[in-house]
Amino acid sequence: MRLYRRLLVFLRPHTWRLVGNILFNVTAAALDGIAFTLLIPFLNTLFGMPNAIAQDMGWLTVAQDRLIGAFLVPDQPLASLRGVILVIIAMVALKNVFLWAGGQLGASLQEYLTRDLRAAVFAHMQRLPLGWFSRTKTGQIIARILTDTEQTKAILAEVATRTIQNAAQLLVTIWILYTMSPRLTLYALVVAPLIIGLLQPILRKLRKGHRRLRAEYGEITSVLQEVVSGIRLVKSFRGEAYEDGRFIGASGRYSKGMTRIQRIALLSGPLTEVLGTVVAVAILWLGAQEVLGGRGMDGGTLITFMVLVMRLLQPLKQLSQAPTIAQQSLAAAERLFDVLDQPTELQADRGTRDVRGLERELVFDAVGFAYGDEPVLRDVSFTARKGEVIALVGASGAGKSTLVDLIPRFIEPTSGRILLDGVDTREIKLPALRSLTGIVSQDTVLFNDTVRANIAYGAGEKYTQAQVEAAARAANAHEFIAALPEGYDTVLGERGTRLSGGQRQRLAIARALLTDPPILILDEATSALDTESERLVQEALDRLLAGRTTFVIAHRLSTIVHATQILVMDAGQVVERGTHDELLARGGAYARLHALQQRGERNGDG
């Protein structure tokens, strides 16, 4: 029930659609039921009975008299039958108009609910901490946002359309049946508790099974996403057969689970139909005794009663299957709410202070960070003053990227503190802190959008074309942009595949420079560039570093010769610090690393 209540939150903005759907379906069900009761005067006239309209059914008798009384001509049975037929056709046509209108509202209701649910999960997902993304496979995330919301739609469809329609038809028909014969109607209702009781064990198994299936489907999506994004690696290492095995294995597990679930789910329909048929036959037998015994029910009423009872089987069958279908949707909804229940960065943020910029310095004070029990940074302390360039060097896994991730609080220190102008960054509101930072990483991310939209990412209306061009010129990107087919309006393709690595990197630098952040983080920003591209990027950086505090994770030591301070890291600790000349003169780790690179460059030249 808790899941239903949570889903109903998304229903509130569309209440009018639900109310309209209910009203139209109830009206259609009432017209349908009354139209079938007109079979009584039709059959009575056909059988030549003296009273076409029964006289002992209260409001139903009055309704029949008003609807077809004028058409019943004494001693002219064919004329009477023709009139009754025309009224039945008119009522059935009107019923279907209301049914269509209700269906339209129900269809729009479920689609808009799905849209809102999908948007809510996507918006929440974007605001989760980076740690959640590192723990969750990309394929699982895609499956939750796209597939699980689509599966959740099924329960909305059942509640908003078919269940309301079937329930309306069921209740109206039972009401009419009770008017015709209370005793037989009570016998007919015996089937409902029997069906509900028999289906409960099935429903419990289905919920558990469908939750496992959603996870299996996410695994299929994960394998597919990994292969598509890494297809070059797959081909170069001839891994097609290996990936075939992974995909077929995941797909096979899903299919096996789905077959098992369907085997259980398909039991509900036959159980309902067999029980319903047994009850219908029993009612026919009891009703025949009343007719033949002359105890108040005539033949026309019994036949109409049986027709209505048989018409109950279909909505009753669909209503009994609704919980079965709902289990798959509820399993998907549980996965969605697993995401929505994760606290966002802003919910976890305890910062209360605003900052406008970096006025003096950024201080790392005995900072440590660990993933669980595994330390990544240990007792890191240094001061980066305004306008300085801090270079971080060391082997892969030394902790360089983790250190710079602490600055915009992508992750939080597990010990020590980071002070911005004397204020612990954890006391600063997260949006305010991140507005101070521009980042260019070695893995350049560009979107399938125009050049302009990529440079002015997330704030297209904020910047003029002149400002975008100025940032591009500063990053030495304007010339190649102008040479593109549509200049700044050229769509780059997925991940910017229309550009070279150096061009993509310069666009990423232009994006960071457009925001003019006081703190700039370059995470091996020139490592993927050829010599000419690196020269162009380095020229742009040299012009724009003045007055900006910059952290550079360097792969090529030649790019950090003029850094204010170089921190040499090893196993999460700063083992050396100083300028380029000071560290070379010291003859330590930095000097050895520098000598190795120079030797490699000479060998490469040779």
UniProtKB/TrEMBL annotation:
Membrane-crossing segments per the record: 21-43, 81-101, 159-178, 184-203, 264-286
Cellular compartment(s): Cell membrane
GO molecular function, one term: ATP hydrolysis activity
Any GO CC annotation of this UniProt entry: plasma membrane
Classification via InterPro entries: AAA+_ATPase, ABC1_TM_dom, ABC1_TM_sf, ABC_transporter-like_ATP-bd, ABC_transporter-like_CS, P-loop_NTPase, Type_1_exporter
Keywords of the record: ATP-binding, Cell membrane, Membrane, Nucleotide-binding, Transmembrane, Transmembrane helix, Transport
SMART domains recorded: AAA
ABC transmembrane type-1 domain boundaries: 22-328
Gene3D superfamilies given in the database record: ABC transporter type 1, transmembrane domain (1.20.1560.10), P-loop containing nucleotide triphosphate hydrolases (3.40.50.300)
Listed name of the protein: ABC transporter ATP-binding protein
Organism: Pseudogemmatithrix spongiicola
Organism lineage: Bacteria, Pseudomonadati, Gemmatimonadota, Gemmatimonadia, Gemmatimonadales
